[in-house]
Design brief:
- With 484 residues, the chain is α/β, with parallel strands linked by helices.
- The chain folds into three domains: 133 residues, Orthogonal Bundle (Fumarate Reductase Iron-sulfur Protein, Chain B, domain 2); 164 residues, FAD/NAD(P)-binding domain, CATH 3.50.50.60; 161 residues, FAD/NAD(P)-binding domain.
- The chain has a five-stranded parallel beta sheet with strand order 7-6-5-8-20, with helices on both faces. The chain has a five-stranded parallel beta sheet with strand order 10-18-11-12-13. Strands 14, 15, 16 and 17 form a four-stranded antiparallel beta sheet that branches.
- α4 crosses α8, α6 crosses α8 and α12 crosses α13.
- The relative contact order is 0.13.
- Bound molecules: flavin-adenine dinucleotide (FAD) and iron/sulfur cluster.
- Iron/sulfur cluster (SF4) binds next to α7 and α8.
């Protein structure tokens, strides 16, 4: 371990953010990492506790805790403390192919279960991860790793989100010839078009995809399997197919006025906003946001990304409507360590709104009853308060109000994967509409030679889980092909 008494001597310190007034003028990442010496000190806080809950996802009271990738966190922290960054990166690479993504967007499940976190603030595991990978990129250490064997098998991966990329990466390293089909014009899935640039710089996604191409993986972009490429041809041309198509069927508002100009789903808005940031394309179907009043429906992370994006596009005001009650500020008795803390999080988008407009944009226990319009365009929303009973949310009469606005962004989550490939391949689905697998822990569907991973199998989740799924599906597919 690093410094035996580090956790007694040093307090947790965190990265800072660029000032709001500065960061909202552009789309660059807004986190300012701590200096290397400070991060070495932070690594010294790791206690080498003996039973590191942070490093392996396992299930406690029905909830999984710790890093889904089983990153060797105490060992990485120790190497960082000793200044052995390249060794720390090698250790990280054993379990994790893309730390440049998670070290920016992961909620850090590891930190929620850090043993030090039972009594003191947890070790800054995520920022240490970022320090290691950013240093490797800065030092030019990310060279292509050419596969050492060839199995002679060909595998198609459909979808290039984190699950598809992780799956392609491992299949390729195991010696299979991999082609990734992606319907978008750039690879990355929600890493590219979804998560905004200020949270994850798109050059990092392009850089990783470039490296994977150098390692021999083929990327077919603008290629939708099921329309541009008939799925049966893909199945004929490849020994196996891994479907990593995500869970992108968006839940929409089912109220009067939902068809008005100015109502847009979050994913469409965020996708088009990023396309506009990257190459100046106009946002299709959305009026200029500059100087407009925006209502975001949905208080989750996607809603927060909409708040921050609308602010950068010059919104005059932003409100965020959330049907659920306000979460507690501190862990409840039913939510002890090492479970993930279900507490209120005031994220970057809310901080920006508070500073610009003087108040937290979120309104809890509130839902939209109607969207009001004139001449086909949104002019306001009618909202109502709800109270939560055992049967669900019940509207409180007399609490309806009309709020003038010009834009309504719906960020209410996803209903499941799109049906195109499910229908064409007659895939079984579960009660939640996700692609079903033959048995728990397996990634094989009911159709021979077809596997699935990521949000398409798991439902809407996290980047780190998608990477884990992609890697496990790759191993499962590789084993299957090796036995044939
Ligand atoms: C706005 C937003 C913000 C988020 N922020 C975070 C965050 O900060 N941290 C975090 O951990 N998670 C975040 N998530 C969740 C995370 O992005 C997803 O869980 C993750 O990307 C799922 O990965 P995936 O590979 O399964 O699917 P996706 O990333 O959805 O990728 C699926 C890909 O498949 C392609 N595809 C689908 N069908 C076909 C077809 N027939 N042919 C070819 N290509 C096809 C799609 O175009 C897409 O590129 C966010 C999600 C959203 C929507
Ligand atoms: S991937 Fe996420 S959970 Fe795993 S170590 Fe990194 S920040 Fe923690």
């Amino acid at each position: 371990m690093g410094k035996a008494t580090g956790f007694l001597e040093y307090e947790r310190a965190e990265a800072s953010y660029l000032p709001v007034g500065e960061r909202i003028r552009g789309w660059d990442e807004f986190i300012v990492p701590q200096a290397p010496a400070a991060l070495t000190t932070q690594a010294a806080r790791c206690m080498d506790c003996g039973v590191p809950f942070c490093h392996a996802a396992f299930v406690v009271e029905g909830q999984s805790i710790g890093c889904p990738l089983a990153n060797l966190i105490p060992e990485i922290n120790d190497l960082v403390y000793r200044g052995e960054l390249e060794k720390a990166y090698l250790r990280m690479s054993r379990t994790h192919p893309f730390p440049e993504f998670t070290s920016r967007v992961c909620p850090a499940l590891c930190e929620g279960s850090c043993t030090l976190g039972e009594h003191e603030p947890a070790v800054t595991i995520k920022e240490i991860e970022r320090y290691v990978i950013d240093e490797m990129i800065r030092r030019g250490k990310l060279a292509p790793r050419m596969p050492r064997v060839s199995t002679g098998k060909r595998v198609a991966v459909v979808g290039s989100g984190p699950s598809g990329l992780a799956c392609a990466d491992l299949l390729n390293q195991l010696g299979n010839a991999v082609t990734v089909f992606e319907r978008a014009d750039r690879a990355g899935g929600l890493l590219m078009y979804g998560i905004p640039n200020m949270k994850l710089d798109k050059n990092l996604v392009l850089g990783r995809v470039g490296l994977m191409k150098d390692e021999g993986i083929r990327f077919e972009l603008g290629a939708e399997v099921g329309t541009d490429y008939p799925v049966l041809s893909v199945m004929k041309d490849f020994d196996a197919v891994v479907l990593c198509g995500g869970s992108t069927a968006e839940r929409t508002l089912n109220v009067a006025g939902a068809e008005l100009f100015g109502v847009m789903t979050a994913l469409r808005f965020l996708t088009q906003s990023t396309a506009n940031v990257l190459d100046g394309r106009l946002i299709d179907g959305l009026p200029n946001i500059d100087g407009r009043n925006v209502v975001v429906v949905g208080g989750g992370d996607t809603g927060t990304d909409c708040v921050a994006t609308a602010i950068r596009r010059g919104a005059a005001s932003v409100a965020q409507i959330e049907i659920m009650p306000e979460p507690p500020e501190e862990r409840g008795a039913d939510n002890p360590w090492p479970l993930w803390a279900r507490v209120k999080k005031t994220d970057y988008g809310q901080h920006e709104a508070i500073e610009l407009f003087g108040a937290d944009p979120r309104e809890y226990c509130t839902t939209v009853k109607e969207i009001i319009g004139e001449a086909g365009k949104v002019t306001g929303v009618k909202t109502v308060k709800v109270e939560w009973r055992q049967t669900g949310a019940v509207e409180i009469s007399g609490t309806e109000i009309e709020r003038p606005c010009d834009i309504v962004l719906t960020a209410m989550g996803f209903t499941g994967p799109e049906r195109l490939l499910i229908d064409q391949l007659s895939l079984d689905t579960d009660a939640a509409g996700r692609v079903a697998v033959r048995q728990p822990g397996s990634f094989r569907t009911n159709t021979p030679t077809v596997f699935t991973a990521g949000d398409m199998r798991r439902g809407p989740s996290l980047v780190v889980w998608a990477i884990d799924e992609g890697r496990r599906a790759a191993q499962c597919c590789h084993n299957y092909l090796a036995e044939r």
